[in-house]
From TrEMBL:
Family recorded in the similarity comment: Belongs to the glycosyltransferase 2 family.
This protein's name: Dolichol-phosphate mannosyltransferase subunit 1
One of the GO biological process terms: dolichol-linked oligosaccharide biosynthetic process
Pathway: Protein modification; protein glycosylation
Pfam family, one: Glycos_transf_2
Entry function: Transfers mannose from GDP-mannose to dolichol monophosphate to form dolichol phosphate mannose (Dol-P-Man) which is the mannosyl donor in pathways leading to N-glycosylation, glycosyl phosphatidylinositol membrane anchoring, and O-mannosylation of proteins; catalytic subunit of the dolichol-phosphate mannose (DPM) synthase complex.
Lineage of source species: Eukaryota, Metazoa, Chordata, Craniata, Vertebrata
Record-annotated Glycosyltransferase 2-like domain positions: 9-174
InterPro entries per record: DPM1-like, Glyco_trans_2-like, Nucleotide-diphossugar_trans
Membrane spanning stretches: none
Glycosyltransferase found in the keyword field: yes
Amino acid sequence: MAAAGDKVSVLLPTYNERENLPLVVWLLARSFQESGYDFEIIVIDDGSPDGTQEVAEQLVKIYGPDKIVMMENNSVLFSLGTAYIHGMKHATGNFIVIMDADLSHHVCLKQKEGNFDIVSGTRYKGNGGVHGWDLKRKLISRGANFLTQVLLRPGASDLTGSFRLYRKEVLQKLMEKCVSKGYVFQMEMIVRARQLGYTIGEVPISFVDRVYGESKLGGNEIVSFLKGLLTLFATT
């Protein structure tokens, strides 16, 4: 069970997630209720044209405004970094989960076991893995992770994943230090955490590809990732 006073704020950046959002919220709410954690889910939408905001507003009515918080990210340049900064302004928990999947209670329990500053879900350790990807997507992910391990030696097995728990004050400090945008942001967070001496725990996860919608990963994101990786290698 959670310690008295602990609360988890989940930051969920969204863009065209109308079909996925109700399922993710339901899974999160069930997981938190079963594990005894107080929680809130902050949906940060990038002006989705598919009606994601309307769905989020309905979820607020169903679960209550103390559990679901809906907001728009009005930043001119939307990215994971700006979404998390925006969401942090409204987070009331002492732990923050950033994610685009479910399984939140596993990282919470792992944090309690080791009193870690950060707990990261990993697809590349233990019984972790990926399901639903074609060979090309798997090769891109494996190749990206291999390059990060060789060039950055981060002390963590999965730098490109987006399922993590942070102490709130640790996440705030890391956001002050990070300059990357997009997919490189997740990688830089771990690298900066290592530099600052924060403790990192890992939990093997089975990542399942999305049921609805399309992946946001494209050629431009891959080029941006490689540029960001080389920049981190040269500056850290």
